[in-house]
Amino acid sequence: MSTKTTWVIDPAHSQIGFKVKHMMFTSISGNFTQFDGAAETESDNFDDAKFSFKAITDSITTGNKDRDNHLLSPDFFDAATFPEISFTSTGFSNVFEGEFKLTGDLTLHGISKPVELNTEFVGLAKDPWGNTKAGLSITGKFNRKDWGLNWNSPLETGGVLVGEEIKLNFELQFIKQEGISNY
């Protein structure tokens, strides 16, 4: 019988960000402000971690209310029908010291597909209140059309208004749940 440790995301010290090309040459950044997630490990170095995560779709913000409302509409996320975005890991393998490949199923817009994310374990420390914290930086990319996010508008000069590739950038701080064991 093995003892597993649960870690939960500290939302006050974490960011779930993304970028997408606008008009083929600049990137628009955004993030989700409501999210939660957990990791389950057998060691504090996260070598064997299993992750789960969800974001509330209508917590998206890009700094422009009209754009945010369009992203929440049926043209993109259709937040009324699909209120959550989720991820469940299927693998976490060490590539190099502190660098990992995180694989799992991303469910977005009612479609689940596998994704691979680059993950850096950036540290472990105690905060001033005695909590053990772990930091992870996660990056990756995917084609939004693979999840049915197809809306676009052609440009007079050629190309399209919104890029297909979504770049992810997560900065996550986890809090170790002392004394909690699932097994």
TrEMBL record:
Pfam families: YceI. It comes from the Bacteria. Residues 6-175 form the Lipid/polyisoprenoid-binding YceI-like domain. PANTHER family: PROTEIN YCEI. This is YceI family protein.
